[in-house]
Structures are given as C-alpha cells and as structure tokens.
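This section describes the prediction task in plain terms. A model, or a person checking by hand, is given the sequence of a single protein chain and must write out its three-dimensional structure as a string of tokens. No templates, partner chains or ligands are provided. The sample shown here is typical of the held-out split.
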Amino acid sequence: MAVDATPERTSFLTHIWVDITSKCNNRCPYCYDMGNNNSDVELPKLQEIFRLLKQLAPPNIILIGGEPTLHKNFEDIIRLANEICKPMIVTNGTMFSKSDFCEKIFKFGVGGVLFSLTSPYEETHDNITKRKGSYKELIQGIHNSLEFLSPQQIRTSTTITKDNYLYLRDVVDLNRSLGLFRTVFNACVPSIADVEGNSCLPLNDLASIIEDLYIYCRELHHSIKIATNLPYCIFDEKIRDELRTNQVIYTGTCQLYRGSGYEFLSSGEIIPCTHLHDCVVENPIAKHMNGAEFFECINSEKMVSFRKQFWRYPAKACRFCREWGKCVGGCPIMWNAFDPNDFLTPIS
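The expected answer:
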C-alpha cells in the first residue's frame, strides 16, 4: 500500500528536454523513445517551442531524440538553444565522429555532450545497439569532441542492465583512458520498449553493483553519478551515507514530483518525464501560451493533482523510516517491474 506525500508547486524550471527527432540509427532494447525512427520535428514547430523557452529561461536545455544530431536542421536548432543557454546534447556519437560536423556545431557553443555508451566492448556495444560500427563512431566522437570541449564537459552515460552489469568497472577504465573525469550511470527502468522491465536488475543486486563500483572508483579518485532516483534503504548501512554525501546517489524528489522539469514532444505537448511518453499533461504550443500562462498551467489544481498520483511512498514500510522526507522511495517507474514490499525496509 502506497503512502501519500505532498506534491509541490513550482516557480522555476531546472531542466527542459526537447525531443527534436524520432530518427535513430541504433535500436537499443530498453530505449524510452521507440518511435517511428524517421521523422524530424519541423523547424517552425521548434521555433515556437524555443520562443516559449526563451520566456521560461530554464538554466538547462537538453536536446534528445531519437538521435538529435540526425535532425536535418540541427545547426539551426543549436543556434536557437544558444539564445537561452548552452544546451546539453545526448547522443550516440554518430555525427560527432565526423570532424567537420564537430567544427560546425561547437563554434556555436554547447554546455556539454553526453555519449550513450552501452558497453566498454565493441562487440557487446554493437550487439546492444543492433548496429555494427556504432562503438567505433562513439569513441571517435569523444576524441573529436575533446578537440573543442574540456573533459569536464564530456561524459558517457551507461544504463545498467542485465546485459552489461559485469562490465561497469571496464566502463570506468575506458573513460579514464579517454581522459574523462566523470562517468554517469542510469538504472534501467521499464520503458515503452520494455514495459515489463525485462532488462532491469532486481534492486538488491543493483545496490550491490553500485556499492562495488563506487569503492572501485573511490580508490581511483574517479567521480561517478547514478542519475536514477533510488531508495536509500537498499544500500548497505556502512556505505549509504557516503554515497549520498558524495552525490553518487540521489534519493530526494525529482522533477516528476516538483513539476520543475518537462520534455517537449514533437507535437509541442509536454510530459513530466522522458520515460512517460503516454502521460501528456498539456500542449502549451497549440495553446500559444506565454511564460506566465505556462507557470499558471503547471501549478493548476489539475497539475498538482496529477503530480500527487506519482508522489506516493511506494511501501507501508516507508511510513516508519527515519529517512521519510529525505528519501521518496526511488523512481516511481521502477515499481512497474518490482514489488516495493520485496525490497524496502524502514531505517530506524
């Protein structure tokens, strides 16, 4: 039985994701955006989205897809984003493997590039992406990007799955050999491509893997970040405080609860999380909203009620935990694959 919490109203935005294309040349089995893979968002629609974003002034804009760099007007999109802030690009590295592309894009300025690395090994990476040559493109893309950006602006992101969890130390070693200072990992959660979470590891196994990885990286003085919100109680009591203090794990509220981050879909509709493509909450572009109207919309009773549906502690045990309020029981999407009562125990 879930335990209710209180969703917040928001007066600011922290992150905006802009889905600019459904085209992608990879076919990762756990992808959260398995669209028709052949459609760009038209530039006039994107201009409308960025018109609104200019008024909202989010400090972080992340360009995603599909593979965003495959958009036929990608150069124009970078220009638009730069009128607001230096955008982050999430990519599989395809286009960044081309030196002339890097030279054109980086002259406008970007906040950073996040390369989606599924495995540190070429054969495994290519098998997961279902495309031969994808690994070599990604590695070349990192090398090319380092010609224009600092190592602090470039990271790899690896989703921890049943297919690659044995090789995570090697992911770190690869990043260090490339001269990168920080490695990002995500916990695999159910998605539109894997509704039942068949690629997801049980949370007790995931916790042990993260603990081992952190200890390994601590000895190497290499920074890692687990980007997925995880329950605090699944980690060993001897190390969990250290994991949180060093910002390796995050257990607090995310934008789904606070209403402080949204993804713009190709239609101009917004969703509260990149994994929730079937949870459209509004279409501010079709309604020609300005910035004030957007904030009025996301703080309406309807939207606060919508957030309340998600902001529920997943197990009765959470009610008696001393971390109540500091931990929200992990990403709510993960409980589509697992029973929280099998994993969550109150910390006394």
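For orientation: The chain has one domain: 12-301.
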